[in-house]
Design goal:
Elements: H1 3-20, E1 23-24, H2 25-35, H3 41-53, E2 57-61, E3 71-75, H4 77-102
Antiparallel strand pairs: 1-3, 2-3
Helix pairs in contact: 1-3, 1-4, 2-3
């Protein structure tokens, strides 16, 4: 899959997971790595930082454990709108590609 397309799909998936539950950055990376094993860890964190910068995600520090403070991500209203747009775009792409492969006319 084209790298730019893959980043868009990963962005949509990250927003989806975080819309269901606030997640710690490492949890996001672990979840996404299981679906996209060929993607570098830093890519997931870069997407999280960009979504936060664009106000699609907000951050807060979770409870302190024995280790360093954990930064959790929460989806914002803007993030929910973006997720809905991305899902509609994805569904349209899938339908278009499916229609193309069903077409026998040339």
């Amino acid at each position: 899959m084209n790298a730019q397309m893959k980043k868009g799909v990963i962005e949509m998936c990250i927003l989806y997971y975080i819309s269901k539950k606030d997640l710690y950055g490492y949890d996001v990376m672990r979840l996404m790595s299981s679906y996209f094993p060929d993607v570098e860890t830093g890519t997931f964190y870069a997407i999280l930082r960009r979504l936060h910068k664009e106000n699609a995600l907000s951050c807060y520090e979770g409870k302190i454990s024995d280790g360093p403070k954990r930064k959790y991500y929460k989806i914002t209203d803007k993030g929910l709108l973006l997720l809905n747009e991305l899902r509609k775009d994805w569904e349209n792409i899938l339908k278009s590609v499916d229609d193309i492969f069903k077409t026998e006319d040339f």
